[in-house]
Amino acid sequence: MTLKTREGVAAWFFLLPGFAGFLIFVFGAVAVSFFLSFLQWDMLTPAKFVGLENYVRLIAYDKTFHLVLKNTITFVLGTVPTRVILGLLFALALVRNIPARTFFRAAIFLPVIIPTVAAAMVFRWIFNADFGLMNEFLYSIGFSNLPRWFSDPKWAMSAVIILSIWKDVGFSTVLFMAGLQGIPSSLYEAAWLDGANKWKSFVYITLPLLSPTTFFVIVINIISSFQVFDQAYVLTGGGPGNATNTIVYYIYNNAFQWFRMGYASAVAWLLFGIIFAATFVQFRYQKKWVYYE
Amino acid sequence: MKRLLMVLLVLATISIVFSATKIRFSFWGDPSELPPYQEIVKQFQAENPDIQVETINYPWSTYFDKIQAMMAAEDAPDVMFLHTIPSWAAKGVLEDLTPYIEKTKFPVEAYNKELLSTFMYKGRIYGFPRDNDTTVLFYNKTLFDEAGIPYPDYSWDWQRFLDAARKLTKVDSRGRVTQWGAVLERNKWHLWIHMNGGRIVDNYDMPTRCTLNERAAVEAIQFIADMILSYKVTPSIAELAQLGSAAELFTTGRVAMVLSNAAQISSFLTNKNLKFGVAPLPYKITRTNTLGGAGFVMYSKSKNKDAAWKFMQFLCGPKGQSIFAKSGDAVPAMRTPETVKAFTSNPPSEQERLIFFTETSFGIKFPSIPGWWEIFEYVTRELDYVWTGQKSAVEVLEYVTQEVTKMIKQYGTW
Fold first, then answer.
1. Domains and CATH numbers, chain A
2. A127 to chain B: which residues are within 8 Å by CB?
3. Which of A184, A249, B265, B395 is spaced 20 to 30 A from B30 at the CA atom?
4. Beta-sheet pairing, B131-132 with B331-332
């Protein structure tokens, strides 16, 4: 054996544990779920092949699915732009030498590592319609006719969105901070010497050089927003009515409450299709605005 | 000598452990609900040292997917706590207990017949109910005394219930309710329809269509909606989760009346200052109550069916039933002098405890069809739009009726 092949074998050997885990628990499960999506199966009685029926029913007839799809898109539109913009603003503030920088950095990142369950409990109090902090605040600055948040189908999704922004903005912030620190200060100095003001150097240096990070943040945020689940699971049970029911919660209910494994798999694959399409489009159009050095 | 004795003791223990038949017994429940189970297993093992019972306990939220996965792997517990028995029996995972009952002369006749019938599939018995989910009206005596209202009794109809609730509701200067007259649980809407003489479906044994859009049902749902939205005497059912559970509100004295079951009493008792009473449900056209509950079954692929049946005879017989009844949380499904006494010798008083049995006799069981719980959950979810004032009762019940009729046809019969 030459050194090269020996090293190759060794490399494969080292990769094996991780790779085996991936094959069995990720790739295997994904492949099986694709297969399942053409079946009707409750785990106990023999599975029945139904062809495309699951997909046809989902797309053409299932009103609840249409509703949860709409809710999920509302959630994505409600959270992603805010998380990206706020994340960038926080990052810009926190890379500077502001007073108590460490404290603010921790404060913004802390929600990310708090379990959703704990956060949800606190938000349940904050958003209590009668005695919660949120409405108390709104009342004190002169609002009457306060929203009933989680108890009102019209407002429940907004409350979930606010919670999710608070919870996850720290993640975008950290990514942006890393991106900002990667921009060489010599560029700013050169621009300053050429007489560029702060706004100009932000637009012509920071934004273009940060664009790979921005692209990454947007892609990651869109993917994770489409997969929103725990807020609905812990906080609202998808309610009131179906106001905060989301696609992944619908998959969970189908699979583990009603034991319709085939149908749940079909929903999962449809969600995969949606996320794949959204990501594909972004990669297609990144050439127009993402600048790689 | 002492050492030798120790060795012998250890050997003896080991030999017992290895010779014992092992069965597995699964149930859901919060830590507070576990003592009767532990007591039953302890007593059973003392009587039967040759059978070892391993208990498996999951919270309600994950119990069923775990059990279903174990069944798919053909390795489910020998004895299980389940609900909606016919739907499991239809899938062949439950053991038909009828021959066991005959062979061992198990006192099946002591069970409430109607309730036991919810554990039957095609005329065979597949399990025994642990208890009945009887709903009663709990009221806070202190708040009633303060308002000068006589305690609820059998004379209470909807009107008197509503009048009392209105007097018991307190509002602060900003119009926020600080004390509710009554609180209703989200999954009890069917009771009001039954009280008003209405029905959810046309025939509870062989349903063909949903009847929620008929006058009696619409009236009942409208009545609940009025209590929430017009009279504001009860919190929105959709809002209840945000306020805490109905039991929590009642325990802390923030609500004067609650419609709930015996399992809540133990949490009421945690507040020593709470003086509460038990009353029958109010009526409209008729008196009614819930008939139904979860219970115990045997796994059809159990490898130790004889040992499992031996355990079930204890668990579901007078002894086990008495232990559950003694906890005061469960209205025994098997009625013997022993179980009745065990249940009624609990707070608040024997006389009030007896109301649970009277109320159970008015029980109406849920429609017996595949997919019933999915239908029930669907209706409960859609009714949120009525409770929050987004849509009218007529509007929601109209489309819900169409949908449920479709679901009934789609699921078919057993």
1. 56-289 (1.10.3720.10)
2. 242
3. A249
4. antiparallel
The complex scores an ipTM of: 0.84
Whether residue A260 contacts residue A254, with contact meaning beta carbons closer than 8 Å, is answered with yes
* Contact flag B382-A241 (C-beta cutoff 8 Å): yes
Chain A residues interacting with chain B (CB cutoff of 8 angstroms): 42-45, 124, 127-131, 139, 148-154, 236-242, 256-259
pLDDT tens, N- to C-terminus, chain A (293 residues)? 788 889 999 999 999 988 899 999 999 999 999 999 999 999 888 999 999 999 999 999 999 999 999 999 999 999 999 999 999 999 999 998 889 999 999 999 999 999 988 998 899 889 988 889 999 999 999 998 899 898 899 999 999 999 999 999 999 999 999 999 999 999 999 999 998 899 999 999 999 999 999 999 999 999 999 999 998 888 888 889 999 999 999 999 999 988 999 999 999 999 999 999 999 999 999 988 998 86
Q: What is the CATH number of the domain that holds B83?
A: 3.40.190.10
Strand bridging mode B51-58 / B21-28 = parallel
Residue B160 — pLDDT band, cuts 50, 70, 90? very high
Residue A272 in tokens: 């995969």
Q: Residue B153: which domain range?
A: 135-291+369-411
Q: For residue A79, give both structure tokens.
A: 């959270």
Do A156 and A241 touch, CB atoms closer than 8 A?
no
Cross-chain residue pair A154–B91, CB shorter than 8 Å: no
Q: Which two tokens stand for residue B132?
A: 């009945």
Q: Helices A101-113 and A156-181: crossing angle, nearest 10°?
A: 130
What residues of A are in contact with residue B387 (Cβ under 8 Å)? 240
> Residue B214 corresponds to which tokens in the numbers above?
């008929």
Does one domain contain both B34 and B117? Answer: yes
Is B160 among the domain residues?
yes
**The two three-digit tokens of residue A56, written as one number:** 């046809």
* DSSP letter for each residue of A220-241: HHHHHHHT--HHIIIIITT-ST
User: With an 8 Å Cβ cutoff, are B68 and A43 in contact?
Assistant: yes
Virtual torsion, Cα B45, B48, B54, B58, nearest 10 deg: -60
Q: Residue B187 falls within a domain, yes or no?
A: yes
Which letter does DSSP use for residue A47 in this model?
A: P
Condensed to tens digits (0 to 9), the pLDDT of residues B358-401 reads 999 999 999 988 889 889 999 999 999 999 999 999 999 999 99
